[in-house]
Specification:
The complex is a heterodimer of chains A (about 450) and B (about 325). Chain A has about 450 residues and is mainly α. Chain A is built from 18 helices and four strands. The chains are: A mainly alpha (about 450), B alpha/beta (about 325).
Chain lengths: ~450, ~325
């Protein structure tokens, strides 16, 4: 059947009605509220579970640090002057050498001494921090001061030995040991790139998978509900099947995107509000620790558009497949089995892309970037990691668009034939033969 | 305006479900599509509306192919349906919007039809009589005085009775003020009160000059409204034409006769078949006016008082039964 512009008349109305009803649906509202609560709670919970503490102030709350050096190692007065400079954490703190200080609630006394040991081998040094009985100095400030005093003393020890900075770096630099075969030795891999690609692929795949699975559920429900409520026949007087299904798919797309945007905004708010009370730097550094940083993405307008466009293509592919699957159902009881097929395809693409991402073989990267469904997951990541060029990326998009158009035409034809179908769920093989015959269908009269 | 249905046929594989259906409506009124279950009525309607592809034939509205995008059509399908969990008002505005009615205009029309079909309380719950609203004590515990009225939520489709759902569905069909109205079994499942309400509305639409196509199993209803009919049996047209002319062609063969005594012998003597008899009240099947007059003459000659003598054409029900044979058991 020829699909022309008039076939899409009414798409906007179907879209706006379906979109609004998604928001009015009690089940959807409850799901959204639950997800939002989870997102809002995630940052403080992750911070607290991860050992995060209350947020450090910009400057130390300690007023005066009275230090006493009972060791033979001379402490550097210049160093104290350096750490108390303007803009530093200790800009409001005084470091005073005093053996018998009167300690107030905001003061700390520090004693550097030689440790008492049973033998000469166990001899060492001891740094003791003493606070007033009614001390108002926070645990964070004390922990920070402990670290600082350790650095001060180590620095003093090394300076006493007249070790230069270069010598110090040589002594303290990291090293590692690795066993590998000859092939790996001759063709070394960029481990940093590998881990970045792996985690980037994983993160992107999870986004695609979640968006698609959510969408499949909404599209299937919208179509099956309409069919089971026997409304389709009346609707078809006013809109063509293509407009009906396109309107629903776009409404599900918009709803899922709005939902995800709200969740991301919720996460941002949670991160900001939590940051006012707790130290969220660990949560913020999560991606950096995974080897993913903004620099690695080469993030600019084009990569962002690449991701969004690829997401859109992926969504449309899975949405049309789920629409097709839902068309074969007559009752809400068939809905789950209709979703299974689409979910399987989504998971299949997800797993293959994870494996291919971890294998990081150039030929495989190129092939999976060109196969529709797999390319939904892999093409944008491979492009950003430099595994494929812009030409391959565009070719991948063209192939995906072609598949989407063919699926949409196939879906519209099947949808038209099956709209008034009542009976057991139609299998994909039956749909194929139906599309060939074009005129088949089961009629009630 | 005119509607021409010309040579419509539909096949599924080797099975013909509609075989060369043709009819036309040159003036406003009601055209009836009759037939047993599975005869092809709904298929014909779906093909007229362009929902099903045709194997042959055409449907013309004002000499142009009927297109529901340009012809304002109202359709009450045999398979009734509403979104069960969506607010009724939203659904009605949506259906009106799909037929090109603006939201503001749709609201006006919904108000009119809600009143006309007596479903206001489901669409405008806050306008329901005070006794029907729920009241709660005002907030504030012991220190509060008076009551507050709980805001009533609009009903969802699945909270309505079948009859009320049918009224909402009729609203969706008529909300765009269509020029061509197709009603597939409009009265099925309605109680007598609501059936009368629907009939009244159908009469109003006829008086407004609308073109109606009606499919029904209720022959009395069809006779009440329709001027032209087509009877389908096993996908084929078995009878078609102007209802009165069809009846005339059968002649006056139904005789209702009431006497003051038993006249069975006289009836048998004239060779007339008795359909039913109860307390000297007879329903007879005659071959024509001559046979009826012969019986009347015989009774007069024998000075037998005749209380009623009513000679009529066959009813549509009888014609239908005759045409579709033993498959008429589902007609009323």
């Amino acid at each position: 059947m020829k699909q022309n512009k008039s076939q899409l008349t009414g798409t906007g109305k179907v879209f706006s009605f379906t979109f609004l009803q998604f928001f009015k649906n009690k089940g959807n509202v409850i799901s959204l509220i639950l997800l939002m609560v989870m997102v809002l709670a995630s940052v403080p919970l992750m911070t607290l579970i991860g050992g995060g503490s209350t947020k450090k102030a910009d400057v130390s709350g300690i007023r005066t640090v009275y230090y006493t050096n009972e060791t033979s190692v001379p402490l550097s007065v210049e160093f104290f002057a350096y750490i108390t400079g303007a803009g530093s954490y200790y800009e409001n703190t005084s470091f005073v050498s005093d053996q018998n200080p009167a300690i107030s609630d905001l003061d700390v006394a520090v004693i550097f001494s030689e440790a008492q040991a049973a033998s000469a081998q166990n001899a060492g040094y001891e740094i003791r921090l003493i606070t007033a009985e009614n001390s108002a100095v926070t645990e964070d400030d004390l922990t920070a001061l402990e670290g600082l005093m350790t650095d001060v003393f180590n620095n003093a020890r090394l300076s006493a030995l007249q070790i230069t900075n270069d010598q110090l770096n040589m002594l303290m630099s990291n090293w590692n040991i690795e066993t590998e075969d000859l092939s790996d030795y001759l063709n070394p891999k960029d481990e940093n790139k590998w881990s970045t690609q792996y985690f980037l692929q994983l993160a992107y795949d999870i986004i695609v998978m979640m968006l698609s699975i959510f969408s499949v559920s909404y599209i299937t429900r919208a179509i099956v509900e309409e069919k089971s409520s026997k409304l389709v026949e009346v609707l078809m007087v006013s809109v063509k099947p293509l407009a009906l299904i396109v309107g629903k798919i776009l409404a599900a797309l918009a709803y899922v995107f709005v939902m995800f945007t709200m969740l991301i905004a919720g996460y941002a708010i949670s991160y900001y509000v939590t940051g006012l009370f707790l130290d969220v730097s660990a949560t913020g550094n999560l991606f950096t620790q995974l080897g993913i940083s903004v620099d690695l993405f080469h993030m600019g307008a084009f990569p962002i558009l690449t991701i969004l466009f690829s997401l859109l293509l992926g969504f449309l592919t899975f949405a049309i497949i789920s629409g097709l699957s839902a068309t074969g159902c007559s009752t809400t009881e068939d809905m789950q089995s209709a979703m299974n097929g689409s979910t399987f395809l989504i998971m299949f693409g997800y797993l293959i892309s994870i494996f291919s991402g971890s294998a990081d073989i150039p030929v495989v990267n190129r092939i999976v970037s060109l196969i529709p469904i797999l390319s939904t997951y892999t093409a944008p990541v491979n492009y950003m990691m430099g595994n494929i060029g812009i030409i391959t990326l565009i070719l991948s998009w063209i192939l995906q668009i072609a598949v989407i158009v063919l699926l949409a035409l196939f879906c519209a034809r099947i949808y038209e034939n099956l709209l008034m179908y009542r009976g057991s769920r139609v299998k994909f093989s039956q749909m194929l033969s139906m599309a060939k015959q074009s005129q088949t269908g089961k009629e009630k009269d | 305006m005119s509607l021409v249905v010309n040579d419509l046929s539909k096949k599924y594989g080797e099975k013909t479900v509609l075989d060369h259906l043709s009819f036309r409506m040159d003036k406003p009124g009601v055209y009836a599509l009759l037939g047993t279950n599975g005869a092809g009525k709904t298929t014909a309607i779906r093909m007229i509306l362009g929902m099903l592809a045709k194997n042959s034939g055409e449907v013309l509205w004002n000499d142009k192919p009927l297109d529901t995008a340009t012809c304002n059509v109202g359709y009450l399908a045999e398979e009734r349906g509403l979104y069960p969990k969506y607010p009724l008002m939203d659904q009605l505005i949506y259906f009106a919007g799909l037929r090109g009615v603006s939201k503001a205009e749709a609201k006006k029309r919904i108000r009119y039809w809600a009143k006309r079909l007596e479903v206001e309380e489901y669409l405008y719950p806050d306008a329901a009589p005070a006794a029907a609203t729920t009241t709660k004590p005002a907030k504030g515990g012991l220190f509060a005085s008076g009551t507050r009225t709980k805001k009533q939520k609009p009903k969802l489709a699945d909270q309505l009775s079948k009859g009320n759902q049918q009224k909402i569905q009729l609203m969706t069909a008529l909300i765009s003020d269509p020029e061509l109205i197709i009603l597939d079994e409009p009265l099925s499942g309605l109680d007598p009160v609501n059936a009368d309400l629907f009939k009244e509305i159908i009469r109003e639409e006829i008086s407004k000059g609308k073109y109606l196509i009606m499919s029904s199993h209720q022959m009395a209803t069809v006779e009440e409204f329709c001027t032209d009919i087509t009877i389908l049996n096993h996908s084929k047209v078995v009878l078609q034409g102007h209802l009165n002319e069809i009846k005339k062609s059968y002649g006056r063969v139904n005789l209702s006769l009431k006497a003051e005594q038993d006249i069975t012998d006289y009836i048998n003597a004239c060779g007339i078949r008795i359909v039913s008899e109860k307390e000297y009240e007879y329903r007879l099947k005659v071959s024509g006016e001559e046979q009826a007059n012969e019986l009347l003459g015989t009774l007069i000659n024998h000075k037998i008082p005749v209380i009623t003598f009513d000679l009529r054409e066959p009813s549509l029900h009888e014609i239908f039964v005759e045409k579709v044979g033993g498959e008429s058991h589902e007609t009323e």
